[in-house]
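Hi F.,

I've been meaning to write this up properly since the lab meeting, where we talked about keeping a consistent format for the predictions we share between groups. The idea is simple: the sequence comes first, exactly as it goes in, then the structure tokens exactly as they come out, then a line or two of notes. No screenshots and no reformatting. I'm using this chain as the first example so we have something concrete to point to.
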Amino acid sequence: MGGRVYPTQFHSIITLLETCQNHFSKIETKSESYALNEVELLACVPRPKSLRDFYAFEAHVQNARRKRGLDVPPEWYDFPVFYFSNHHAIVPPFGEVKKPSDTAMLDYELEIACVIGKDGIDISRKNALHHIAGYCIMNDWSARDIQMCEVKVGLGPAKAKDFATTLGGELVTHDELADVFANDRLNLEMDVFVNGKRLGGGNFKSIHFSFAEMIERASRNAWLYAGDVIGSGTVGTGCLFELDNDQFPYLNVGDTVEMRIERLGVIRNKIA
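Output, unedited:
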């Protein structure tokens, strides 16, 4: 038909629409509400198509490398870098996280993630925000002892981070955050608590590379699809690895990690 629609087809389409309208008008709708403890709240994107996590906060990079006696490599300032995490290992915002049996250095990472809402390739930073469906809290769980062994090989912290990533239950759209958005960055306070005690956090506006720059980098010569998730990386002091671990030890079974980000809500996970 070459893309044309003929009168007989219009009649069929109209008939179909009328049938659907009649059907849905007969469905009885109920307005009910439930307390949060009566339901299981899933991640806003329970099964992302992919999960990229960036390394975009300068303070985190400085703190983590200083602890290992290293400076920030000059190349870090040239472009935002990321690794692919396990998009099949998403944990609900209030679900339990199973501690990997082969780690003694279980850690959290306080981040914001953006969810792609529009397909694209070679997206410029100027147009990148049009490809974002919304934002949520993200916890990039990490096994630091495994990570420190892996990175020596040069291929990144894959196994150290493939067991769990928590995404918030709320996806907040860009227009809802327009009043706290400036210079391509969100002015949002971020806090992390372990067993009720605040251990770190900061403000997202301190990020060195914006989400627009991350999307530009991620989409260069590669498609981004609706449902892909992009993590910001950890805000400064947003993980135990940056802290004095004699005073702030790594996580163990029974510990509870809570993250709060202004306007994006709360996630709370107990180590099982």
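Notes:
The domain at 43-271 is CATH 3.90.850.10 (Fumarylacetoacetate hydrolase; domain 2).
Confidence is low (pLDDT under 50) at residues 5-10.

If this format works for you, I'll send the rest the same way.

G.
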